[in-house]
Amino acid sequence: MATGDFDLSLSTLWFTKNPPALPAAIRDAGTTTHTYSWTTEQSYLGISKTLIVAIRFTDTLATTKLLLTWESSSPRKTVKAQQKHFPPPAALSEEDLLKASKTYGENIAKWAEDSVGSRVGDGECWTLIYSALSDIADTYRRVGQVPPLVSQGRTHGVMILSVSGASPGSNTGMLQLADVRRGDILELNSAHFRILESAGDVQKPVFKPGSMVSEPIKGGGERNIRMARHTAIVVGVEGDAVEVVEQNGSTIGGVGLEKYDLNTMQGGEMQIWRVVGEKYLGALEAVWEDE
């Protein structure tokens, strides 16, 4: 994300459109979510308008707010703009991360396991995670508890682990060191897993209530998994492998099971995210508070 104030390209009059189209400098700075509010007032000069835009950059969770005012009779000549920039939320302690896992993790994992064999929404991988967190958030709200933070793009709370494909054994023990747990979120970026299998030794992940096990199937040879961008829900950890429930992975367009072993990772990046409470980030609101 860019630092300092953005070039708002006010001459393009993007702020007069409804809904407003964000200026190019902000669109180019990264993936965002945003909300806005309008105010219209009658003045001696005519009609005065105010637009407040709150923008969150989903990769960093930093926030920018814009305040624009102008006279509707001559917006290009009268527009005035202010910007405020807010840093990402502070890091959480190990104690807070563990508490978050105990609060949300098991419910997330069970929601995922209950979805195996179905199709969630449009069948895309990200939709599974977003639907799970949205449904669980609604349940927590109904009973007056702090809901989990719903995914902000490819950001799913707090990243607790990031590893890259490297030589075999170099990532041994990393899952345990990061304390990866059920209900965490797996994110793969340009990942490649190469699995060598001997005839009679091929293992297929099979779901059993409360766990995922491997059962032998016929075959052999080499199995390659390549994922440009992929998201899944962790339901177990076995050594250096994460067992996941995923959509549109090995089960095209539906929810199935897979296992990703760091020892077979040839390239790309694996991230593990810990889902945390909604209060970690706070609501994105189009309000302007003078300091």
Summary of the model, kept short:
InterPro entries: AIM3_BBC1_C. Residues 82-283 form the BBC1/AIM3 cysteine proteinase-fold domain. The protein has helices at 24-27, 75-78, 94-114, 125-142, 174-177, and strands at residues 32-43, 46-57, 63-71, 80-86, 158-164, 185-197, 203-208, 211-216, 221-238, 241-247, 255-261, 265-274.
Please provide a written account of the structure.
The protein is of the alpha+beta class. Helices cover 18% and strands 39% of the residues. The chain folds into 2 domains: 10-88; 94-274, no CATH class. The protein has 5 helices and 12 strands. The longest helix is centred in the middle third of the chain and has 21 residues, at 94-114. The chain starts with 23 loop residues before the first helix and ends in a 17-residue tail after the last strand. 29% of the residues are buried.
Name some characteristics of this structure.
alpha+beta, AIM3_BBC1_C, BBC1/AIM3 cysteine proteinase-fold domain-containing protein, 6-stranded antiparallel beta sheet, single chain, 12 strands, 291 residues
Strand content: 35-45%
**C-alpha termini separation:** 24 Å
Assign a percent range to the helix content. 10-25%
Structural class category: alpha+beta
| Structure annotation, total helices | 5
Average pLDDT, all residues: 88
Largest sheet: 6 strands, antiparallel
Series of H and E elements: HEEEHEHHEHEEEEEEE
The unreliable regions are 206-218
Placed side by side, the strands forming the largest sheet appear as 5-12-6-9-10-11
The backbone outline, from C-alpha atoms, is: elongated
Calculate Rg over CA atoms: 23 Å
